[in-house]
């Protein structure tokens, strides 16, 4: 499992209930294609905005039971029957598009509250869509899902500093820069200093606490669903461990999970207990 883009959850993995794999794959394809429209290639911002608007209109056609344009047939072809069969909540899918559109014009965040509002659109809908497929609707589960998904989004940000900052995109909140006496120029230039490492260490602690708050959901969900979520949680925590092992130097290098991490993730997933979650350490 990779903590990157929408690989923040294992897509249609062997642990996913087989009957739900087509639905999860269709949702993933929708989200990933929209993400690529907003972020990949050499299109102008205006063209990206136009493409996302057309993509949204095709989504609304599917929601109305009408035929979308043929432009993204490989996305909306599989999504249309999934949308009807599982009564997918349209606002959750549109929230993802809102986040991608926001990426076109916003590359700085004033404080943690503003960044979390972005995560509410960019990450949390994915977890809520999965819970919808699993038939989980209670408020506590939705809240814990949001905590897991926002934590995964933050982990992705802290993991990707060496990629995002050279492109002019900084997700570390401005208010946190000030606390650690870090300037925008230092972050854009990728200057690995004691101050920037302290800033990232604090951000890592924030993401870890949020993940641990949400983690009990993985112990509550039954069968394959619960085991899959355990691995999602442990994959996110493992990335944080790797960031810490570098001395919080993600301005200089990007840690990632590899196949050699799989046995450890399985072991940690199997040992998850409610009383141990808050005691988890790297």
TrEMBL record:
Pfam families: SQS_PSY. InterPro entries: HSQ_synthase_HpnC, Isoprenoid_synthase_dom_sf, Squ/phyt_synthse, Trans_IPPS_bact-type, Trans_IPPS_HH. One of its GO terms (biological process) is terpenoid biosynthetic process. It comes from the Bacteria. One of its GO terms (molecular function) is squalene synthase [NAD(P)H] activity. Gene3D superfamilies: Farnesyl Diphosphate Synthase. NCBIfam families: HpnC. This is Squalene/phytoene synthase. It comes from Sphaerotilus natans subsp. natans DSM 6575.
């Amino acid at each position: 499992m990779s903590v990157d883009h929408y690989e923040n959850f294992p897509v249609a993995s062997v642990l996913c209930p087989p009957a739900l794999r087509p639905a999860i794959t269709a949702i993933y394809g929708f989200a990933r294609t929209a993400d690529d429209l907003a972020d990949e290639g050499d299109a102008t911002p205006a063209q990206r905005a136009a493409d996302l608007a057309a993509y949204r209109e095709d989504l609304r056609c599917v929601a109305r039971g009408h035929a979308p344009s043929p432009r993204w047939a490989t996305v909306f072809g599989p999504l249309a029957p999934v949308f009807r069969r599982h009564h997918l909540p349209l606002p959750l899918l549109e929230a993802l598009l809102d986040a991608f559109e926001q990426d076109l014009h916003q590359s700085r965040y004033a404080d943690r509250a503003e960044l979390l509002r972005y995560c509410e659109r960019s990450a949390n809908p994915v977890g809520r869509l999965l819970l919808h497929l699993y038939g989980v609707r209670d408020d506590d589960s939705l809240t814990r899902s949001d905590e897991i998904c926002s934590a995964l989004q933050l982990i992705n940000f802290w993991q990707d500093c060496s990629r995002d900052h050279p492109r002019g995109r900084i997700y570390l909140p401005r208010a946190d820069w000030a606390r650690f006496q870090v300037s925008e120029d230092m972050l854009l230039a990728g200057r690995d200093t004691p101050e920037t490492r302290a800033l990232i260490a604090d951000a890592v602690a924030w993401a870890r606490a949020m993940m641990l708050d949400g983690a009990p959901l993985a112990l509550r969900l039954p069968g394959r669903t619960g085991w899959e979520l355990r691995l999602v949680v442990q994959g996110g925590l493992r990335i944080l461990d790797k960031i810490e092992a570098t001395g919080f130097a993600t301005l200089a290098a990007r840690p990632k999970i590899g196949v050699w991490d799989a046995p450890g993730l399985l072991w940690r997933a199997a040992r998850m207990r409610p009383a141990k979650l808050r005691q988890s350490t790297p």
